[in-house]
Amino acid sequence: MNNNMKKVSALMVLSLALGGGAAYAANLDSIQPVNSTSVSADSKGTEAVKVSVNGAPMTDGYWNKDGQEPMIALRDLTEALGIELKWNKENKSAELTKGTLWTIVTTGKDQYSVNKMLLKLGTAPEITNGTLFVPASFADKVLHAQVNTTGNQVTISSEEEVKTVTERGVITGINSEGKYQSIHIGGAGTDGIVLNVGEDTAFKSADGKDIKLTDLTIGMNVEAEHSEIATLSLPPQTPTYKVTVLDTAASESEAQPKEVLGTAGTIENVKTTENNGTQIEISGSRLTETAPDHVILNINKDTKLVNHQGETIKPEELTKGAKVIGFYSPVLTRSLPPIGTAWKVVIETPADQPEAK
Predict the structure, then answer these.
(1) Which band of pLDDT confidence, cut at 50, 70 and 90, is reported for residue 1?
(2) What pTM, to 2 d.p., does this model score?
(3) Cα(first)–Cα(last) distance of the chain, in Å?
(4) Cβ distance 332 to 338 under 8 Å?
């Protein structure tokens, strides 16, 4: 499995909260279950770090003193990953072995053995409330597991547990700023799915060339390869390994505008214009800061009418009451509501199809 399948380090804040599991007490060579405890760094507040390994909850973790690194219980981690742990209480160290894997973790020492070389992670293991904790990066850099850290949630998967799915959708939102970057596809608001991306996520154009997150815009139809595991939030969020743009323009007139605005909502009115064109009125919510939440869009022969899978839909499906997303350039009239020309319209729910509950 390549690096893209092992790591996704940059994620947005997840709303999933897993229930706390059993914590483990003091001496690592005589483990006894006790009530779960949590310790938090001041800069991260008092909320505990929720940790899960291969989908199962572990002892709550906490943020280190700098509030930059989540700390997780070593014994829980090794047991979940099938790694043998031998505790040496004299020097408060743990020897870990599994197949060709071997390393020693020593309390208070930021020094880890990887392939007979010493590695520093910037945070030393420490004993808190009788349990030895290691930085979450230890699971990634030393144990070669997949680690996803988002807000106060750390999700760890062993390499053999990682499964991926591929799906298509139209981009309705992009967060390319800060530590947690993501793409929202398949719907707006609580609909669709959020693709959490990072430095190891591959981005490809329709012709197979390497591109960057900043080359993407809302309205693009993409294919995403992401983890089978997603949060229970609305919309769900998932680590993503590859994003491929599917849009191609047959002519210059069909090309995507340099700047795209978007409005998601319900068609309030449909009418035929003087030149036998179609005009739809959308009322809902804006996808971009400068977009209106109420807009009238002219549909012409170059307007792409599709569903989230990129399949072409018929103009007759644009009826009053249909749930759609309209994408258009910033060139709008000053009327209320403003009027513009649609580059792409994505239909989400036809008017005669009730929404799933």
Answers:
(1) very low
(2) 0.61
(3) 38
(4) yes
